[in-house]
Hints:
With 351 residues, the protein is mostly beta strands. It has a domain at 57-196: Methylamine Dehydrogenase, Chain H. The chain is built from one helix and 28 strands. The protein has one helix at 5-18, and strands at 20-27, 35-42, 48-56, 63-65, 71-76, 83-89, 95-102, 108-113, 119-124, 129-134, 146-149, 159-165, 168-173, 178-185, 188-196, 203-208, 214-219, 224-231, 234-242, 253-259, 265-271, 275-281, 288-295, 301-306, 312-317, 322-328, 335-342, 346-350. The strands form seven sheets. Strands 3-2-1-28 form a four-stranded antiparallel sheet. A four-stranded antiparallel sheet has the order 4-5-6-7, with no helix packed on it. A four-stranded antiparallel sheet has the order 8-9-10-11, with no helix packed on it. A hairpin with a 6-residue loop joins strand 26 (322-328) and strand 27. The longest helix has 14 residues, at 5-18. It is globular, with a radius of gyration of 20 Å. The two termini are 40 Å apart.
Amino acid sequence: MKITFFTLLLSISFVTYSQNISLYVGTYTGADSEGIYKYDFNTKTGELSNKKLVAKAENPSFITFSSDKKHLYSVSENGENSNINAFSVGKNGMLNFINQASSNGANPCHVQLNKNNTKAVISNYTGGTISIYNIEKNGSVNEAFQVLDHNTETKKSHAHSAKFFKNNLFIADLGRDFLAQYDKNDSKYSLKENFKMKEGAGPRHFEISKKGKFIYVINELNSTVSVLKKDKESYTNIQNISTLSDDFNNESFCADIHLSKNERFLYGSNRGENSIVVFKRDKKNGTLQKIQNIPVHGNWPRNFTIAPDGKFLLVANQKSKNISVYKVNKSSGKLTFLHSIEAPTPVCLLF
Length: 351
């Protein structure tokens, strides 16, 4: 059977297209950015191409998908006038604005949905409040049905991230140095316990192991990861480990943290050392062993993400305005730098 030149071109084009997936990028808007961007990511080579503005928005510094990826949600970081924005995802990858609701606090820096896409939670860094919303079937977000206020008369809260896990809501409070656990009672959430970090640690983001036995908290201010192990209905701190190279003595601030899909490795970002730290994880006792610190080939690695197949890790370097791409060795967990591209003030990466 003869293969025509057109058929060959068509098949090559299909293969190329089929190995591309979308990467969405949340940014700080200004001279070089207008909102949320989308790139084509080649799952074979790790190349990023075809940058496209898919939604105009003010400071969409953190973005997240619904579990079916039909809707995308962003914070709109704008002081006291901040919001959560809801978008539907079009067939061409463009984002169609649905609606927005008040964040009920200044400068939200994180948004997340529960597994069945019925609730969203926003963490307001400057305001120190956490807002919880109901999500409608069409993806629209209602006004918050509950606002948690972590501020006290003597201590200022800086809520930095929150995650739903089963019937719990966990919140990292950088200002008050704890990870809070809330339980769902009827339709509201009530505080169960605060798990204290070291004073001045600054818990920022965290990862929960699949079964909820371990929680890994990355601390911005003292550049450590705290390992919490479930003990009956509570959690105990079993390890604090530095994210920095042993010979690094300058100022540095942690940002993001992610477990590999098989949970054998844990990754974190260091702003100052400008590196990604790699830990090997003991799956039985949950403890960590540091095995690599690799430069990010940029400045101020804010957020990073692991490609869905686990073969690549991508870093958003906020101050140098570039995205760096690494190959992941699935056996050792270690990273190898591949390349970097310029990007408009990237701060959040989402597959």
